[in-house]
Amino acid sequence: MSNRINFWLIFSFLVPLLVAIPIVTVFLSFFETTGNYFDLLKDTLLLRYVSNSFILLSGVLFLTFVFGVIAAYFVSFYNFPGVNFFKWALILSFAVPAYIYAYSLVAFFENYGTAFTILTFFFGEGDYNKYIPKFDGLIGSIFSISFSLFGYVYVLTRASFIFQSHNLIEVGKNLGLSTKENFFKIILPSARPAIVVGLSLVAMETLSDFGTVDFFSISTLTTAIYNAWISFDDLATANQLSLVLLLFVLLLFIIENLSRKGAKYHQNSKGNKAIPKINLKGSISFFASFFCFTLFFCSFVFPVSQMTYWTIKFPKYFQDIDFWSLNINTILLVFLSSIFLITFSFMSNYGNRVSKSKLISYLSTFSISGYALPGIILAVAFITFISWFSDLLSSVFAFGGFKNVFIGSTLGLVIAYFVRFFSLSFNGIKSGYSKINNSIDENAYLLGYSKLKTFTNIHLPYLKTNILLVGVLIALEIIKELPITLILRPFNFETFATKAYSYAAQDLLEAAAFPSLCLIIWASVFILLISKYILSEK
Amino acid sequence: MFVSNALFANEVNVFSARHYDSDVQLYEKFTAKTGIKVNVVSGKDKALQKRIKEEGKDSKADIYITADAGRLGAFQAEGMFQKGASSAAIKKVVPAIFRSPYWVGIAKRARIIYYNPKTVNPSWNMSYEDLADPKYKGRVVIRKSSNIYNQSLVASLIKNNGEKKTAAWAKGMVNNFARKPTGNDRAQILAVAAGEADWAVANTYYLALMLSGSKGAEQQAAAKKVKPFFPNQDGRGTHMNISGGGILKHAPNKANAVKLLEFLLTPEAQQHIVNNTFEYPMIPGVKANKLIAQFGLDFKQDLKTKVSNYGKLQAKALKVMNEAGW
Q1: CB A117 within 8 A of CB A128
Q2: Burial class (CB in 10 A: 0-12, 13-18, 19+), A293
Q3: What pTM does this model have?
């Protein structure tokens, strides 16, 4: 018995260690030389980078809050035309990565772009360009990221509304509040923890975005770190900037964690009875439908239509794409990473549960911090660490090193994904575990079950749904993932994301349309697979 | 097993910051001809360089290909290339200015001025320097300072006019901007077509790409509203840049790498490149694509400013632009 405990203990130490590697690498690379980037930065650029990041973040948080909360409010409490459709259609926005949204936005609104074509088609030749609004730069980034991320706020807020123990609308009525007062005084505060969790996820994703801001050439803290570190070899500056970014993210983490605790408190639903919805009438009903439709249209129909239009209009780009190998690569990465992540998340969670050690619990919290590091920084940190470690070992033990095992290999990709998405996986399994009462374990031991048997015969079956959910969330992230794949991939290895990126990089967004569309279709399939669970009302 | 495979495999490994599909087709031709398999990883320039540097002597990469001479020069300065890129065969065909012992140009592009012939008419000797003239206030578009092509252009201005004059020029440019810099080179040309500006600075192949119809009928029509202009004909000539490659310090397949570079500089390969990417050929005897050739091929190229200067002066160029608020 004690052997097993040691195993869990050791294991619970190892995972956080692995995940901590990139962060530690970013901070410990002080021994390298300092470049001239900082002078440049401090004179002219730092303020711009920080303010860009700040504007981007504020804009995205504002829009995702408005989109997510209002949509959740309508579909949770009211009946209006299309409500059952919008309920799940709105989560399809998860299928469109922000950088692909950005491609669509530029393609549609640029001078002589798709909007121009449409206007010409209907109204004949004309000077339309100056009337078409331009969505590029910061505004374009804010819209792209908001439409692809508001789903977090929507899903979590909606769940919080659904799981309320009382019908909040009724409560408000009984208190004599108007609809508006009720929304601001009762409904919104009741969902606050869920909204904050959603917004902090949005914030972390926004800060770590690279594909979108790079496409719009917006300099943010993340691109500044990338430039300082990679373009200018100025590690001291990169470290200082990373520190700023990480402090930012750490703050978000703390807020998120505190809110999660709050959220649990509120989810004390009694009886699991669906709350009866109120039928909307007249202009309010129209507005609700219109709002949800516009959101669905902008977040999903618009990018999909733009990509479909191009795919049909420029069929010659079909032949350049090795469709099957892209599919196989995507499936391979999803499959390997999910198995790896889910297995380890289980073991970590179980280790936490059986050891009940505070230290291990802290370490686990630390190990989910990989999510906070932007993918592109993580990938470079991974390469730096592997090289350093391999060189160290080969100088001490005189053997050939193992860089090629980890850099430019599928294994390396899977490990980097592991570090990045362990938080997602760990928390997903954890939320399932928290519902299994500890007394169940005690009873199992009393019945003579070993720890392992308790795990396989009791926990695993109980957590089936969580495994499915986590697996699909990992799949979604990996299908959309760009910077890590781009830097760490093996020779002749493309995914839909890297293919779309490389066409976009050579200014052939038309050719990027087909891989983008495939990516969105794959992601949509996965979303539909779990929509039942995401939208569960029980 | 993996080691022995690597030792005996007849292959060459390319890290490329050029993303063209046509490059991959070219590698396939090379394989068909020589039996040498070409493996490719493409990606962002600096990230690829970082990976090569960190992999060190374990790196499998043989050739590094990128656009912009400055990048090649900077990577050379870090000691990442070995000599041998310019083999005897290559020296025979590639002009000295577009190669060094460490790297060789594969194709050329010019960074030129575009204008709206309905509103303005440049005099034959107009220069990049002239774009900062206050009389063009609010009529000039160009992309951001973070763009490497701009950094190389400004580096060449610093080399020729000095830092102080170039700083004043950059301020003048910013005063003349029709809008905050946004979008890629094609977006600048489109802005002139749409009447947002009279003047744009962009690379040559973007206009040809639009004229080819690859971007649809509307953009093809828009491209015809804009005229290319080759500046500085009265002086050093139009700013030229290259796409090029070099053999990496730890290349495991050096002989094959040399063969591939030599192949890329054969008339057959050059013809393929210029017809697909609309760049200028690097060797004599190959015709530029007709969409590019129609702009005129007898313009004076800046062969005086060594492209290796671009790398050395890019950081300064970025500083100058940033201080001007570019």
Answers
A1: no
A2: middle
A3: 0.89
* Tokens describing residue A78: 């009211």
More confidently predicted of A243 and A74? A74
Beta strands in A208-279 (DSSP E): 278-279
Which one-letter DSSP state was computed for residue A187?
A: I
E strands, chain B, where?
A: 11-16, 37-42, 63-67, 103-115, 140-141, 199-203, 227-229, 240-247, 280-281
**β-pair partners for B245:** B65, B104
List pLDDT tens digits, range A200-256.
889 888 988 888 998 998 888 888 777 776 666 666 677 677 777 777 777 777 777
Q: Are A491 and B46 an interchain contact pair (Cβ–Cβ within 8 Å)?
A: no
10-residue mean pLDDT profile of chain B (326 residues): values are 51 92 91 95 88 90 93 90 91 91 94 96 95 96 92 95 96 96 93 95 95 90 96 95 95 95 96 95 94 93 87 87 90
d(CA B132, CA B134): 6
User: Could you give the number of structural domains in chain A?
Assistant: 1
> Which residue segments constitute the domains of chain B, with CATH numbers given?
2-108+242-293 (3.40.190.10), 109-238+304-323 (3.40.190.10)
Residue B187 C-alpha, separation from nearest chain A C-alpha, in angstroms: 8
Domain hosting A210: range is 2-24+58-314+321-534
Tokens 């970082």 locate to B50
What residues of chain B lie within 8 A of the CB of A488, using their CB?
Answer: 51
Put simply, the answer to whether A231 touches B41 (Cβ < 8 Å) is no
Burial A96-117 (b: 16+ CB within 10 A, else e): bbbbbbbbbbbbbbbbbbbbbb
Looking at the complex, report in whole angstroms how far the Cα of residue B170 sits from the nearest Cα belonging to chain A.
15
Q: Please, which pLDDT band fits residue A475 given cuts at 50, 70 and 90?
A: very high
Q: What is chain B's length?
A: 326
Give the model's confidence band at A368: pLDDT under 50 very low, under 70 low, under 90 confident, else very high. Answer: low
ipTM summary value: 0.88
Phi and psi at residue B106, in whole multiples of 5°? -110, -30
Beta strands B103-115 and B240-247, pairing class? antiparallel
Contact A391 B51 (CB under 8 A): no
Nearest to B187 by CA among B201, B170, B171: B201
State whether the Cα torsion A256-A259-A261-A263 is positive or negative: negative
CB proximity B150 to A under 8 Å: no
Q: Do B215 and A510 touch (CB under 8 A)?
A: yes
Indicate yes or no: CB of A487 within 8 angstroms of CB of B48: yes
Which pLDDT does position A5 carry in this prediction? Answer: 55
Nearest to A101 by CA among A417, A517, A524: A517
> Domain holding A106: CATH number?
1.10.3720.10
Of A502, A218, A241, which Cα lies nearest the Cα of B147?
A: A218
